[in-house]
Design a protein that fits this description.
The complex is a heterodimer of chains A (about 150) and B (about 400). Chain A has about 150 residues and is of the alpha+beta class. Chain A contains three helices and six strands. Chain A has one domain. In chain A, about 25% of the residues lie in helices and about 20% in strands. In chain A, the strands form two sheets. Chain A has a four-stranded antiparallel β-sheet, covered by helices on one side. Chain A has a two-stranded antiparallel sheet with strand order 5-6. In chain A, strand 2 and strand 3 form a beta hairpin. The longest helix of chain A is centred in the C-terminal third of the chain and has 18 residues. Chain B is α+β, with helices and mostly antiparallel strands. In chain B, a hairpin with a 2-residue loop joins strand 8 and strand 9. In chain B, helix 8 packs across helix 10 and helix 11 packs antiparallel against helix 12. The longest helix of chain B has 21 residues. Chain B starts with a helix and ends in a 12-residue tail after the last strand. The chains are: A alpha+beta (about 150), B alpha+beta (about 400). At the A-B interface, strand 2 and helix 2 of A face helix 2, helix 12, helix 13, strand 12 and strand 14 of B.
Chain lengths: ~150, ~400
């Protein structure tokens, strides 16, 4: 039986437009750039997400506006050195998956946990068994505001 | 709002508020403990009162009966429960002083039993208080009111001289009537989820928006009057005004705002006297003490205004990080912490169960059983960080 082909950037763009009809999606050969202001839950602020995807590679997502606010030591939980949000672990993502079911909602989840973290200093996103101070310290990384395309 | 419904709700400000207010409630274990304690005390009283014509009764009253208990922020989050000890006697066969002494003897006998947890017994002007760590049970002596057809009582007054009419069960029936449909809907929801008959779902397991609104108002009052607790408007006044102003609705935050801004309109002034009749016993005026406290009405209106302002501010800025500190200021740090923990853990729980969806409106939702037609189920994942892999 032939394996399913991975969704190309056009299919990804279509899925993004279907779920977020007013969002901006730019595609060129094997490349997709999506921008959209999301309100992850009713109580949240609005954040403009920018998602970059090169066919077959790991997508990258960042917050274009407003600027994320690190703690007084310049640290944020679960960010890459590049300032992108780190919303997956090894094995969570493969190119057969739709961005609408992965990186987009994963980033929205990140934002809810980020707002909770700003108010409480606690990152709830790793589960109830990771609320101890050692676990909480271990997820903080220096944050550099990424460049917006 | 029941826990289940909270799980299904999108995380709006009303949901955040409801999650936080849940920390003011009795836990199911505490609830059972209260019931077993006043039932055991009731059995001792019944034994003690052998020369009674019919059924003596120990029954809860006040916030426990209404489902509006609020932990005491000024006393280590203890819970205060009110109960009446009703001896089935005619008022001419006893005196208030004898009845009160009698209740005290029975309470002392109960408190000496090892099974009671040996609470301390304190005496007040017209009642007794049993004190356990974390819980105070006020026991008010009473007789049946022969002129009442709806469970009315005669209770002791401050001077232990004149019998006062009271009707806690009638008041509770009125309060329940203000939220009847919602109470039924909440119980149905739990019954469906737990595959029970609605009658099998105890009322204390569900919480309506009216009950939560009363809890929110009482807690806000306790914080607002921190340095002058003796000047607080009474809980019965707040509860009655809120229940009169309550018009139902979908979102707890909107309900709280609307109810708060409308509650002052239900106080009347006739011939210079403020009136708030007990809806279950209109000859009783809940604010009759204001005759000797001329500053009390102004204090109530001042607090209602402050509460309205604080609740408006809560919704003025988007962002959970902006709202939690305001929740903390209005209702205390534990309410805000509980709101944060509840939202955080319900979101991770939904993700772990595969119940998280993203809606076409670009919001996350905890989908429960069925997501909407255009919604996308979120794949499970974890967060990492550091250098890109």
């Amino acid at each position: 039986m032939a394996g399913r082909t991975n969704p190309n950037v056009a299919v990804q763009a279509l899925a993004l437009k279907r779920l977020f009809p007013n969002s901006q999606v730019r595609i060129s050969a094997g490349y997709l750039l999506w921008r959209y202001p999301v309100r992850p839950c009713q109580a949240s602020d609005i954040y403009e997400l920018e998602l970059e995807y090169r066919q077959g590679a790991t997508p990258k997502v960042k917050v274009a506006t407003p600027q994320l606010v690190p703690n007084e030591d310049g640290l944020l939980p679960h960010v890459w050195d590049t300032g992108h949000l780190c919303v997956h672990q090894l094995g969570d993502w493969n190119p057969g998956q739709l961005l609408t079911r992965t990186f987009v909602p994963w980033s929205m989840e990140w934002l809810v946990y980020y707002e909770l973290w700003r108010a409480t200093g606690i990152w709830y996103g790793d589960g109830p068994d990771r609320l101890d101070s050692a676990s909480q310290r271990g997820i903080l990384h220096p944050y550099i505001q990424p460049r917006v395309n | 709002m029941s826990t289940l419904q909270k799980e299904l709700s999108p995380a709006g400000l009303g949901s955040l508020l409801g999650r936080g207010l849940a920390s003011l409630d009795l836990t199911p274990v505490e609830h059972e403990r209260v019931v077993s304690r006043y039932e055991a005390l009731g059995a001792v009283l019944d034994e003690h009162w052998t020369a009674t014509r019919g059924n003596d009764a120990m029954a809860p009253q006040g916030s426990f009966l209404l489902g509006t208990v609020v932990r005491n922020i000024h006393r280590n989050d203890d819970v205060d429960i009110d109960a009446v000890a009703c001896r089935d006697l005619d008022k001419h066969s006893t005196t208030q002083a004898d009845l009160k002494t009698d209740v005290g003897h029975a309470a002392a006998k109960y408190a000496r039993r090892s099974s009671s947890g040996r609470p301390r017994l304190l005496e007040w002007e017209r009642c007794w208080t049993l004190v356990w760590p974390g819980m105070h049970l006020d026991v008010l002596p009473a007789l049946p009111d022969p002129s009442s057809y709806s469970g009315g009582l005669l209770i002791t007054d401050r001077n232990v001289r004149n019998w006062l009419k009271s009707n806690p069960s009638g008041y509770a029936s009125w309060f329940r009537s203000r939220m009847r449909d919602e109470l039924r809907a909440e119980r149905e929801l739990v019954a469906k989820a737990e595959r029970l008959e609605i009658e099998e779902v105890p009322e204390y397991l569900v919480k309506t928006a009216l009950q939560q609104t009363v809890q929110a108002l009482k807690r806000h009052r306790d914080i607002y009057f921190t340095n002058r607790l003796d000047q607080r408007p009474s809980s019965i006044v707040i509860t009655t005004l809120a229940a009169l102003a309550y018009e139902g609705g979908e979102d707890l935050y909107d309900i709280l705002r609307r109810t708060t801004s409308a509650m002052g309109q239900h106080l009347r002034r006739e011939n210079g006297v403020w009136l708030l009749p007990n809806p279950s016993q209109p000859e009783e005026n809940f604010v009759d003490s204001w005759v000797t406290q001329p500053a009390a009405p102004a204090r109530l209106f001042e607090w209602i205004e402050a509460a309205s302002r604080d609740f408006d501010d809560l919704g003025a800025r988007a962002g959970i990080h902006n709202q939690l500190p305001l929740l903390s200021g209005a209702f205390g740090t534990k309410v805000a912490e509980h709101a944060a923990t509840s939202l955080g853990t319900s979101l991770t729980g939904a993700r772990a169960r595969g119940d998280l969806s993203v809606t076409a409106g670009a919001a996350l939702s905890i989908a429960g059983v069925r997501p909407g037609s255009g919604d996308q189920r979120v794949r499970q994942h974890g967060f990492a960080g550091g250098r890109p892999n």
